Amino acid sequence: MERPLAQRRGEKMEEGLRWFSNYFFKPFLYPFEVLGLSPNIITCVGIAFALASGYFIAVGSIPLGASFFAISGVLDIVDGYVAKKLNLVSAFGSFLDSFSDRISDAAVYTGLILYFMKRSDGLLIGFTLMLLVNSFLISYVRAKAESLDIECKAGLMARASRFLLLGAGLFFNGISPWILKVSIWVLTLLVVETIVERIYVVWRQLKGRTVV
Questions:
Q1: What is the pLDDT of residues 119-161, one digit of tens each?
Q2: Catalytic residue of the set 76, 79, 97, 101
Q3: Do 74 and 21 touch, CB atoms closer than 8 A?
Q4: Is the model's pLDDT at 185 over the cut of 60?
Q5: What SS3 state is found at 154?
Q6: Closest by CA position to 69, among listed 157, 169, 212
Q7: What domains does the chain contain, in order, with CATH numbers?
């Protein structure tokens, strides 16, 4: 069965972002390889930076929050790179990486919710709460689909895309707070699109299957 256009588009975007990140950050990754740090340690450090990012965003220090957010994203790339280069890929490492992604998402979005609560911006609180829930749902739909032997990478807002768009909003918030607001509005709409497309992909491939 030919894969749906949404599936192919999602895969191409994810592959393109992965290629760009590997190419761009590769010169900075060699020190980690030389030091021989465990990828799991790097993952845990990334979690710490994501938690710090959420804290600084919550207290209103957006520039610091954006900086820690960027570092946590770089470390999220570094741990996988180091694991492959040092032949330290493990099942637990894969589990820990996925766990760290969820913790990082929760920390940053919770920080944003608290930030908007202090400003009594009910609309942005609602949008950010939707982002928090839907980011978990996107990952859940993919994981559940893969447990059914279905590859599910459709949609425009895989985690890398969400990271880039939200990061841009945080970094340029100092120019105008509307940049962060608009990035959250766009993110909210596109994560819904991603969930719908992924559910459609699963439905299309499961249609006609019987439950054993």
A1: 999 999 999 999 999 999 998 898 888 888 888 888 888 888 8
A2: 101
A3: no
A4: yes
A5: coil
A6: 169
A7: 5-206 (1.20.120.1760)
